[in-house]
Each structure stands twice: as structure tokens, then as C-alpha cells.
Amino acid sequence: MQSLGSHFSSDPRPIGVFDSGIGGLTVLRALIRAMPGERFIYLGDTARVPYGTKSADTVRAYSLGLAHILMQYDVKMIVIACNTASVHAAGVIAEFVSPVPVISMVPTAAAAAIKTTKNKRILVMGTQSTIRSGAYAETLKMLDPSLQVTSVAAQLLVALAEEGWIGGPIARAAVDRYIGGFFDGDDRPDTIILGCTHFPLLRDVIADVAGPGVALIDCGDAASAGIAGRMSGKPEIKFLVTDAIERFTSAGERFLGIPATNIPAEHIDLTEILNTGLRKAS
User: Fold this and answer.
1) What are the positions of the active site (predicted)?
2) Does 52 appear as a known binding residue?
């Protein structure tokens, strides 16, 4: 994948990042780690979360509205930090915001998984909508037809991550129920794509259930690796949400790994986002 870092590292405009809620903060965390001197604007659609159970048309409309808001902040790039939105809306967003580049989760994570796997067996974990779309399997097979790809919808893990139940017997039982059976035999996958931005919080449990020798692909790490420019300094971050500011800041501390007092979110009018998204999607 072409590196964008050398071109954008000298551009002082912010990078726009959006998600259906708080899961995309794991992507933002990876971006900050890769580019600590950058400016970021994070927009979480906390009023309409989750996207993973909604129709493709609805996700496209919602996502276009979020992209419209970010463009008002003169962003130099948009990162779709939501796998469901990446699956259903990346193309229309790229057309809408052109020539501003758009980074989405599926192609970057798929490329990282192909580079990582040794036995060409890959397991994709995601939300219902992401898995139902078949986007990961299609992308992986397009890049390497010899791959054996298995996909599993693990919707309950989203709720566990948001509630902070990321360890202990309940989390382990849920993960084992979803993927345990894939790692019993000799034909076990050696690579797992965490195809939902909530899942990195359950990384330790997923790794324990999968067993030794299995690599986990974090979408945020894969996306940030494609933006190679690195700047020193302290990041400047603006947080925007469509609802539930207190819940966002509380959960954000867990997802982003910084104190809640450092996550001063601002409320964005949902009416403008909805009207813009529906108009652009029609």
C-alpha cells in the first residue's frame, strides 16, 4: 500500500476519524502512537450506535453525514475507524470527499493478515453486518485465492467491551463459544483479523482461546502502518459526539488509555448529520 505519511506530515490540517461510537478510539490510539505530533478530530456517533446490526443503506446514510461534518473542519484525510462503515460506505465517502484521501479498515487489515499468515488459514471476527457483507473474505481471496478464510459474527463481544467485561470467565466463555471450535484440530488458522474496533480490548482473551502461534491483526495498527509519516511532539485531539458525552468519556478512558479528564467531548447536532447523510445517499 502506498505510504501517505511523507506527503501529509508537513500539512498542519487535522486528520478526521469517525466511528459509530467509541470502538474507533482503538484506531485513534494506534494513529496517535504512529503519529504523536499530529492533530486529530474524532467524531463518534454515540446516538445511533451500534452500526453492526443496521442495514447497508442506513450505514451509508449515517456515514456520509459524519464525513460531511468532518469536512467542515478542513481535514486532510478521513479514517473510517469502523469496520461496518468501511464495508458499506468507504466507496461513497471516497467519492463524496475527493480529493481528500480515505483510509478504511478492510483493505489495510486484509493486507496485514496476508503478510502475516504462514499456513494461509485466516479467521475473521466481526459484527453481524461486517461478516454478512462478506467484504473481508472477498478482499482476502481477491488478494490471494489460495487462502482458506473462515468468518464468524461475534456481536456479543461489542457489548462486553463497552461494559468493560474484557477479562474473566464471562468474556472467556463468550470468546470460546465463538471461536474455540476453530482451534481444536491441525487445520487451525494461524491468523485472526479483529474485524471490529471493539475487539482489541478483548485481545488477551482471544489470544488465550486461540492458543500459541496465532497472530492477531488489529485494524488500528494496520491502518496506521499505511500512514508512514511520523512527527514528534504531543498530539492535539478534538472529540465530537452525537449523544451521551459522559458515557463516551468514561468508556473512552478504557478504549483510548488516557484519563477521562483528557477526553473533553463536544456535542454535535444529529439533525444536521442525518439530513446531510440522507441527501447524499439518495
Assistant:
1) 82 (proton donor/acceptor), 196 (proton donor/acceptor)
2) yes
- Shared domain check, 214 and 277: no
Confirm or deny that 213 is annotated as ligand binding: no
- Neighbour order of strands in the sheet with 215-218: 148-153, 121-126, 191-195, 215-218
| 151 annotated as ligand-binding | no
For the chain, the average pLDDT equals 89
Query: Cα dist. 187→23, 61, 74, 184 in Å?
Result: 31, 40, 49, 8
Q: How far from chain centre, in Å, is Cα 67?
A: 15
Residue 209: give its domain's CATH number.
3.40.50.1860
Question: Same structural domain for residues 256 and 172?
Answer: no
What's the rounded Cα separation, in Å, for the pair 149 and 254? 31
If one counts the domains in the chain, the total is: 2
Q: Decide the pairing of beta strands 77-80 and 215-218.
A: unpaired
Domain of 262, in residue numbers: 5-104+227-281
- Give the active site residue among 31, 82, 179, 206: 82
Burial label for 57, CB within 10 Å (0-12, 13-18, 19+), is: exposed
Instruction: Give the SS3 label for residue 25.
Output: helix
What percent of the chain stands above pLDDT 90?
69
Structure pTM? 0.88
pLDDT exceeds cutoff 50 at 37: yes
User: Nearest-CA neighbor of 125 among 222, 57, 55, 198?
Assistant: 198
Residue 82 annotated among the catalytic residues of the structure: yes
Q: Please tell me whether 242 is known to bind a ligand.
A: no
Q: State yes or no: pLDDT of 266 exceeds 60.
A: yes
Hey, how many other C-beta atoms are within 10 angstroms of the C-beta on 12? 8
196 is a catalytic site residue = yes
Instruction: Give the span between the Cα atoms of 190 and 171, in whole angstroms.
Output: 22
**141 shares its domain with 217:** yes
Catalytic residue from among 34, 79, 196, 240: 196
Domain check: are 245 and 172 in the same one? no
